[in-house]
Design goal:
- With 219 residues, this protein is mainly α.
- It has helices at residues 2-9, 11-43, 49-64, 67-80, 88-112, 116-124, 129-159, 172-181, 184-212.
- Helix content is 80%, strand content 0%.
- The protein contains nine helices and no strands.
- The chain has one domain (2-217): MetI-like fold.
- The radius of gyration is 20 Å and the shape is globular.
């Protein structure tokens, strides 16, 4: 009852926190997708197995670093570059790094597992390497890449709540304030809205995955 009373009395504030959270996720994951898919395509090329192993290994290590520790490491680094060391920028950088493993790994795996016979058929039709990439490999890789993106977004929606400790806005604010003042209603409110946001984002991305998947691959 206390939770509902708090929500009912603070719709505008909760809406602002939600929009801040969404903006943080949108910016960070858009950049993460661009970087991860581009790098995944590159390391999936022939003769780049060692580079791929190294890149995926580093991305895996990044996922093992506690979020608070990563935020702490970014602050002096950005400060040395005369860039904002608290707030939006370090939060975005951290979320980009955390989103790389699922996007990179899925892109790499999807590109590598495209049926060689289809690639040879494309070459037989006179397609260039660029045309094969954009007309054969990437369309066939869409379901796997989208699965990686969905994982990255859900993970980052949760991690973004911790960014409040370095001055970023979002749904971590009520959780942090609730912990500081022993207000369970604020903690539960933040947790509930983060969960709802994660479920909605995953559902919307599932619809996008279905839309962009080639008809021949749909079940």
């Amino acid at each position: 009852m206390e939770v509902w009373n708090y929500i009912n009395g603070h719709w505008m504030t909760i809406g602002n926190w939600t929009l801040d959270h969404l903006w943080l996720i949108l910016v960070s994951n858009s950049l993460a997708v661009f970087i991860g898919v581009t790098l995944g395509i590159f390391i999936a090329g022939k003769g780049r197995e060692e580079i791929a192993d190294t890149v995926l290994y580093l991305a895996g290590i990044m996922m093992t670093i506690p979020s608070l520790a990563l935020f702490g490491l970014l602050m002096p680094f950005l400060s040395a570059l005369n860039l904002p060391s608290i707030g939006f920028l370090p939060a975005v950088i951290a979320l980009i790094l955390y989103g790389q493993l699922p996007i990179l790994r899925n892109t790499y795996t999807a590109i590598r597992e495209v049926d060689p016979a289809m690639i040879e058929a494309g070459r037989g039709m006179g397609m260039t390497s660029r045309q094969i990439l954009f007309k054969i490999k990437l369309p066939l890789a869409v379901p796997v890449i989208m699965a990686g993106l969905r994982n990255a977004v859900v993970i980052n929606i949760g991690i973004a709540t911790i960014a409040v400790f370095i001055g970023a806005r979002g749904l971590g604010v009520p959780i942090f304030r609730g912990l500081r003042t022993s207000r369970m209603d604020m903690i539960i409110t933040g947790a509930v809205f983060v969960s709802i946001l994660a479920l909605l984002a995953d559902g919307l991305l599932a619809l996008a995955e279905k839309k962009f998947t080639p008809e021949g691959l749909k079940k």
